């Protein structure tokens, strides 16, 4: 009897944040067991999987002709169904073999986060990917709702709360009240667009072509939305566009901030626009609580300050912002009543 209980409890419930940039998997009783970039490497012809996660990300831009390095998600939604399924299958299998966590025959019940405002087809794809990867049941929850719950907000109350999750592919902005999403905006502009902006500006200004991964490093090291107390610099290596040869260059934080300004402006304008569309009673609630900021992209230095200034509202950055969605999904695994209220669709197999 004890064994069966343990089997059911520890065995079969997973929360999956299938993000554009990172995949985070939580297992009941174990905590977060996977936190890896959403990237797979496979043979082009046979589609045989060669590497997943961090290992695959290292191959980006360095792969020979016969190997392709794929990002299964673009702008928050599945762009390559087989790659997404193979990646999940790989993780589910790893968990069942090494940790003995997942009972192989019954498969796990899986909660997966999806961006708000995606199409039925896009939702279906996420659910199908989880089921094809071996899930016994796949339930979907909108990411802003999961982020709100993961940030510790009491979403069931008649009390408006504004959540902004800046991820890799999408910025999710939502007003949550009474366990529902009252207003939402899903902007397909987030961390990746910041990287692209750095690539573009370095090409135009210095005639130097940077790889995507290098641009992301620059963003994390010296990127910001407001000036740093003292200017920072970062040395990059790229390809000189004129001569086609490698070249080193010192980038300074001021120029990176300028490069990022457009993307930051778009995100801030979307937040302000959402507040404008929010009914006055809820705006009063939001003013009382402040705006809750989560997601990896929200860690861009000073983006909280810019949002606070533009909206004239207090802004709170969640602890470990990159894990807010998976934390919310994990809480829902323990709270069946709330899950019933917030889940999007049900897929049983
Ligand atoms: N310190 C930092 N400064 C700026 N950006 C950062 C920092 N740390 C991480 N990021 C960015 O956060 C993004 C990833 O965030 P997150 O893991 O929340 O995205 P995701 O959930 O995979 O994507 P999405 O929710 O859009 O599908 C990446 O673009 C990454 O470069
Ligand atoms: Mg996310």
TrEMBL record:
GO biological process: cell morphogenesis; regulation of cell shape
Record carries keyword Cytoplasm: yes
SUPFAM superfamilies xref list: Actin-like ATPase domain
Alphabetical list of Gene3D superfamilies matching this protein: 3.30.420.40
Subcellular localization(s) per the UniProt record: Cytoplasm
UniProt binding sites for ATP: 20-22, 168-170, 216-219
Subunit description: Forms polymers.
Protein's UniProt name: Cell shape-determining protein MreB
